[in-house]
Design goal:
The complex is a heterodimer of chains A (about 240) and B (about 140). Chain A has about 240 residues and is α+β, with helices and mostly antiparallel strands. Chain A is built from 4 helices and 12 strands, in the order E-E-H-H-H-E-E-E-E-E-E-H-E-E-E-E. Chain A has helices at about 20-35, 45-60, 70-80, 175-180; strands at about 1-5, 10-15, 80-85, 105, 115-125, 135-145, 150-160, 165-170, 190-195, 200-205, 210, 225-230. In chain A, strands 3, 5, 8, 11 and 12 form a 5-stranded antiparallel β-sheet that branches. In chain A, strands 4, 6, 7, 9 and 10 form a 5-stranded antiparallel β-sheet that branches. Chain A has a two-stranded antiparallel ribbon with strand order 1-2. Chain B has about 140 residues and is of the alpha+beta class. Chain B is built from 2 helices and 7 strands; from the N terminus they run αβββββαββ. The chains are: A alpha+beta (about 240), B alpha+beta (about 140). The interface of A and B includes residues 8, 12, 85 and 108 of A.
């Protein structure tokens, strides 16, 4: 509504806003946030919004829950002006690429604000507890296309996975940097899992309990989180 | 908004006199402290939940949209945090009120606010907006 000072110490509503005025104020706030229209929301309980909500609460010094932040994460959070999370898009098909049964992940990074400096980016994958009580090697590759159009894999990061369940974190700063600089180069990431006793034989991520599809559980859906430092230049959509 | 509110308040006073007991007119109602109140911080809570924007703004639920309001009258009290320029301007205003306006009541300290919201149905952003929340007011 429209408010006036009551002459002492409070502000009181003089009248409620009309529908048109509400729409105008909404556009002002959307413009301030850098949005051209009101966004649609994700399914409730999704992993990516929940992660950022935990980060938000950590900024308010509230309990962090099962955020499982490392020292590197805390530094990145403190250094960052913008933190974005990107849910994996299983519906994103690329010509010439097979779906690879959950081994390929693709993220829409087209909304990264121009002029923001990337501090770091990480891929977060959930592994179900007690799925397979053995160790495995999880590697993430960047899918790239050479000049002739053939697809190739570039190793990005690799970790050893133990029997414990929970969120696995891999550093994917380099792929995000190249996708932001060259949007057409975004072919996604490729996951590879090997058992120590069979290094030549790759198995599926789901074979060691890694959740790669949101159809199973949106709260454990793979996502990427990126930390940015603002350049100081504010870009807003013109209206 | 202030102009609109004042215009409507005056219009309402013309047509429905009973309404003026709720919102004293700043220029005609002598009982109002409107014009004599000194520069200070005021609070207006903006609730994203009340605005029904909570489906895309995840956090916070709302925020105290502090703002600065009031007059910069001489002598400028210590809590008003006046600049040297404001003190000089006040003196010059007293000597020549028609030519030199009073100093402005404006924020002297601002802090950031973090807002968490959906960019689309897949992606979420937690953005820190610098210099968004008024922490203190003063005369400039």
């Amino acid at each position: 509504g429209l408010y006036v000072d009551n002459g002492v110490d409070r502000t009181e509503m003089a009248r409620a806003l009309t529908r048109n005025e509400r729409r105008e104020v909404e556009h002002e706030i959307l413009s301030l946030l850098g949005l051209s229209s009101r966004p649609s929301r994700a399914p409730p309980g999704s992993a990516a919004p929940q992660f950022l909500l935990d980060v938000y609460k950590s900024l308010l010094d509230a309990p962090r829950g099962d955020l499982n932040l490392s020292g590197r994460d805390l530094n990145a959070i403190n250094e960052s002006d913008v933190i974005m999370s990107f849910a994996s898009r299983s519906d994103a098909h690329q010509s010439g690429l097979r779906h690879e049964r959950g081994r390929r992940l693709w993220f829409d990074v087209s909304e990264v604000p121009a002029g923001e400096r990337i501090v770091s980016a990480e891929l977060r994958l959930f592994r179900s507890e007690g799925s397979v009580p053995q160790r495995a090697r999880l590697s993430v590759y960047q899918l790239v296309a050479d000049e002739s159009g053939d697809k190739d894999l570039v190793l990005v990061d690799s970790i050893s996975v133990g029997p414990a369940g929970g969120w696995l974190v891999l550093n994917v700063t380099d792929p995000l940097t190249s996708w932001v600089a060259f949007p057409d180069s975004n072919l996604g990431l490729y996951l590879s899992v090997h058992l120590p006793d069979k290094p030549a034989h790759a198995i599926l991520p789901e074979d060691i309990g890694i959740v790669t599809s949101k159809r199973l559980d949106t709260s454990r859906q793979p996502f990427m989180v990126a930390f940015f430092q603002s350049s100081g230049r504010h870009t807003t959509h013109s209206r | 908004m202030t102009r609109e509110t004042q215009r409507r308040t005056k219009k309402r006073a013309d047509t429905t006199p009973a309404d003026t007991s709720y919102y004293p007119h700043p220029f005609t109602d002598s009982s109002a402290h409107w014009s004599s109140r000194s520069c200070q911080i005021q609070t207006l809570y903006v609730s994203f939940r009340d605005l029904e924007w909570h489906d895309w703004i995840i956090a916070p639920n709302g925020y105290d949209a502090f703002y600065c309001s009031g007059e910069c009258n001489f002598p400028l009290n210590a809590h008003m945090n006046a600049t040297n320029h404001a003190i000089v301007q006040t003196l010059v205003h007293l000597m020549n009120p028609s030519q030199v306006p009073k100093p402005c009541c404006a924020p002297t300290k601002l802090s950031p606010i973090s807002v968490l919201y959906f960019l689309d149905e897949s992606n979420v952003i937690l953005k820190k907006y610098k210099n968004m929340v008024v922490k203190s007011c003063g005369c400039h």
